Amino acid sequence: MEQIQDLGGPAQPLLALQGLIKHFPIKGGLFGRTVAKVRAVDGVSFSVCKGETLGIVGESGCGKSTTARLLMRLMEPDAGSMIFDGQAVGEPRAGGISLRDYRRQVQMVFQDSYASLNPRLPIEDSIAFGPLVHGTPREEARQRARELLAAVGLSPQQFARRYPHELSGGQRQRVNIARALALRPRMVILDEPVSALDKSVEAQVLNLLVELKEQFGLTYVFISHDLNVVQFISDRVLVMYLGEVVEIGPVEAIYDRPAHPYTRALLASRPSMDPARRRLAPPLTGDPPNPVNPPSGCRFRTRCAFAEEVCARSKPTLAAVEGGHLAACHMADPASGHSRAGREVAAA
Amino acid sequence: MSTALAPSTAAQAGATPLVRIRDLHVTFATRERTVHALNGVDLDLAAGEVLCILGESGSGKSVTLRALLRILPRFARISGRIEVAGRDVMAMGARELADFRGAQAAMVFQEPMTALDPVFTIGRQIAEVVERHEGASRAQAEARALELLELVQIPSAKRRLSAYPHELSGGLRQRAMIAVALACRPKLLLADEPTTALDATVQIQVLLLLRELQQKLGMGVIFVTHDLGVAGEIADRVAVMYAGKVVEEGPVGPFMAGPLHPYPRGLLASTVHGHMRGRKLQTIPGAPPALSTPPVACSFAPRCPLAEPACEAAPPPMVEAGAGRRARCIKMLPA
Questions:
Q1: Is A162 exposed, middle or buried (0-12, 13-18, 19+ CB in 10 A)?
Q2: Which of the residues B198, B283, B303, B304 would you substitute to probe the A interface, choosing the one with the greatest number of A C-beta atoms within 10 Å?
Q3: With an 8 Å Cβ cutoff, is A200 touching chain B?
Q4: Do residues A168 and A89 touch, judged by C-beta distance below 8 A?
Q5: Which chain B residues are Cβ-neighbours of A192 within 8 angstroms?
Q6: pLDDT in tens, A20-30
Q7: How many Å apart are CA B63 and CA B76, to the nearest integer?
Q8: What is the pLDDT along chain B (335 residues), one digit of tens a residue?
Q9: Of B254, B253, B259, B258, residue with least CA distance to B240
Q10: Full-model pTM
C-alpha cells in the first residue's frame, strides 16, 4: 500500500474548509426538546497547504477538538464543505472522494495514548488493523507494522507482541503515531499529542514527529493548548476563540506581530521562566464565556480591553492585516468605525 | 544518607523553619508490587517562603505533599521526620491531625471539581471549615465565607456563596478551593499543580492571585508543579525531585540561569520555548526508573551524559555549592 498520488499540484490546498458549522443540541424539559445549542464550531473556513504543519491553538471550549473531529469526519458537520485535493469529501457521486478513501488519506492521533489503543491487542496487531481492513494481506500488514515500529523508535523484536499497559506513556504515543501512518496517509491530525507526556518525553516525540513528516512526506494539523509547542512545530498558526477563527497566518507573524487582542493576551499569558521578568498583571480577567450563548458581534468583546459599541453590533470578518496575515478584529479594518481602526494598537 | 546536612537558607540563618522534613521515606506495598516512592527526602521551608517542587510524574513530588498532611493511603509505609511549625507531624494522633489539617496547613488540589463537594454550596463548604476549627457560629462563619470569596477576587461574591461547584467556571472553582484552603488562615499552604487544569489566560490569573495572597497573608507555600514556567513565576526557591529524592535545591533565579545537576539541565534544555523552530530539541534519553527496589546508586546515572563508574557504585551525597545551592551529584557542573 503506497501513498496516494498528488492530484492538483503543490499550489492546490490539500484540504480546504468553507463555512464549517457544528452545533450540539442541549436537550431538556419534559419532552426532551432542544432548549439550547452549544455553538462548538461556528462558521470556520481555512485551508491546509500541502506539506505544511498548521497549528491550531485556543482555550477549552474554543472548538479546536471539534474541528479536529470534523476534519477526520468522526462527526458530520451541520453545514459547510470540505475539499480534499480538489475533491469534495463524502460526495463520490458528484466526482468527489468517498469517506472510506478520504479516511485512508487522513489519519489522527489523540491525546490519551492509552484510551486510543485496544487493550486486548498486542501493539503490532493494533498497527496492522487498519491495513487489514483496507485489504492488505495479513503477512504484509504485519511486516509493515514492524517497519513502522522501527520507524517510531521502538525495536520490533522487543515491542511487537507487547500490550498497551506494558508500555510507558511516551512509548504508547509512538505506537499511536505508527498506527496513524500504517495506511500511508497524506495528512495526519494530531490532537494534543504531547499534552499528557512529561517534558523530557515530549521533546522526544516532537523530534520524532518532525522526522516522520520529512520521511513520509506528510501534512500535519497540530492542535494544542501549548503555545510553545505550537510555535516549535508549526509553519502556520490558526487561533480560535468560541468556535470562530480570530487570526491565522505564518507562525512568525502570529508570534511576533499578533494583530488580534485575544492572540496578544494568549501570548502574554505564557508564564515566564525568568523570575526577573514576572508578570505583574494578568492580560485578561475572567474565564472564556460559555459557547452556549456567545456574545453578539465580536465574541471576544466581553473580555477585550478595546471593545466599543461597534464590536457588539457587528461581527468582524477575517481580513488581511499588516504583516501579511488575517485577523478578525474591527481595529484592523479602517472602515469599521472603531475609534482605533487603522491605527497601530497600543500593545495590550 | 545526608541527613546531617541542614538544608535551606532558613536553617543557615538560624531561624526555625516552618517546615522541616528529614530522611523521609514512603513505600507503597500492595500484594502485586512495591514502589519506593520517596527515598530520603530532606526539605526546609522558611515562614513566608514559596518553594516549588519540580519534577516529572512519579518523581515523588505529590507524595511529599501528601505525606506532609498525612493523607497518604493506609498501605503506605512512612518513615522519617516531618515537623511543621515545630510540631512533630509523624507523632500526631487522629484527633491532632484533624485539628492540624486545615488550621495549620491546608491544601489546594489540581482538580477543584473532585476536591469540592458537589452537594454543598461554596459558601457552606467554607463556613464548615471555619465552624469546625474556630468554633464560630453559623452567622459568623458565613460572614467569613463572604470575606474569603472577596479575598480570592470572585466577582459578585455574595451571589456566588449559594452556588454549587458545577455552576462555576474552572477558574472560579479553583478560586473557591483556594478560599476553602485559606478559611482558617493557615501558616502553610500546600498546592498540588493547582493551575495545570486551567486555560492559559486563567492560569496566569490564578498564579498571580496566589502570589498576591501569599504576600498579603505571609504564608509559607509549597507548590508542586512540572512546569518550569510556573516555577519561574511564583517560586522563591526550587527543589527538583527525581526518583523519590531531591536532586537539586536553590534560589529560583540562579537555578533558571543554569542548574547544577545534569537532570534539571536536561529538563531545561528539552523544554520547548521561544525561538527553537527548525532546531532539533535536546532530549533526555530513556525513562525514569520503576522504583520497585530502593536506589543503591544515582538513579539518574542510566540517562546521564556525564555518568562514570562511581555514579553506579553508591548514592551520591548532597553537595553544597554555595549561595544556598546544592545538588546530589558527584560530577556537579559549575554554575
A1: middle
A2: B283
A3: yes
A4: no
A5: none
A6: 999 999 887 77
A7: 10
A8: 343 444 444 444 556 899 999 999 999 988 888 999 999 999 999 999 999 999 988 899 999 999 999 999 999 999 999 999 999 999 999 999 999 999 999 999 988 888 899 999 999 999 999 999 999 999 999 999 999 999 999 989 999 999 999 999 888 999 999 999 999 999 999 999 999 888 889 999 999 999 999 999 999 999 999 999 999 999 999 999 999 999 999 999 999 999 999 999 999 988 887 667 778 888 898 888 889 999 999 999 999 999 999 999 999 999 999 999 999 999 886 65
A9: B259
A10: 0.89
Question: In A46-136, which ranges are continuous DSSP H helix?
Answer: 64-71, 99-105, 123-133
Strand partners, A18: A81
B12: its cell numbers: 543557615
Contacts of A335 (CB under 8 A, 6+ apart): A341
Cβ neighbours of residue A40 closer than 8 Å, sequence gap 6 or more:
A22, A23, A24, A63, A66, A243, A291
CA distances for A303 relative to A63, A258, B100, B312, angstroms: 18, 17, 41, 56
Q: Residues 135 to 164 of A: which have CB under 8 A from any B CB? A: none
The angle formed by the CA atoms of residues B133, B139 and B140, to the nearest 5 degrees, is: 50
CB contact under 8 A, B252 and A275: yes
**What confidence tier does A344 reach under pLDDT thresholds 50, 70, 90?**
low
Q: For residue B287, give the nearest of A60, A168, A266 by CB distance.
A: A168
> Nine-digit cell at B323?
549561595
| Residue that the C-alpha cell 475533491 belongs to | A87
Residue B269, burial from CB neighbour count under 10 angstroms (0-12, 13-18, 19+): middle
**DSSP secondary structure code for residue A89 in this structure:** B
Give me the torsion for CA of A77, A80, A86, A90, rounded to 10°.
40
Q: What's the complex ipTM? A: 0.86
DSSP strand pairing (A15-28 vs A79-84)? antiparallel
Provide the residue ranges of all domains of chain B, joining segments of one domain with +: 116-185
Please check whether residue A208 touches B, CB under 8 A.
Answer: no
**What is the distance in angstroms between the Cα of A135 and the nearest Cα belonging to chain B?**
37
Which amino acid is located at B114 in the chain? Answer: T
Q: Where are the alpha helices (DSSP H) in chain B?
A: 8-13, 61-69, 94-103, 112-115, 122-134, 138-151, 157-160, 170-182, 200-217, 228-234, 252-257, 262-270, 309-313
A295-342, pLDDT tens digit by residue?
999 999 999 999 999 999 999 999 999 877 999 999 988 888 899 887
Residue B252, amino acid: V
**Those residues with Cβ within 8 angstroms of residue A1's Cβ, 6 or more apart along the chain or in another chain:** A131, A134, A136, A144, A183, A184
Please give the single-letter amino acid code of residue B259.
P
Q: How far apart are CA A209 and CA A311, in angstroms?
A: 40
Q: How far is CA B75 from the centre of its chain?
A: 22
Q: Which three cell numbers stand for residue B159?
A: 451571589
**Right CATH for A15-234 from 3.40.720.10, 3.90.1150.10, 3.40.50.920, 3.40.50.300:** 3.40.50.300
- Closest by alpha carbon to B198, among B222, B181, B173, B178? B173
Residue with cell 488581511: A320
B221: which 3 cell numbers? Answer: 507555600
* H or E element at residue A251: helix A251-256
As to burial, measured by CB atoms within 10 angstroms (0-12 exposed, 13-18 middle, 19+ buried), residue A48 is: buried
Where, residue-wise, is CATH 3.40.50.300 in chain A? 15-234
Pairing of strands B188-192, B105-108: parallel
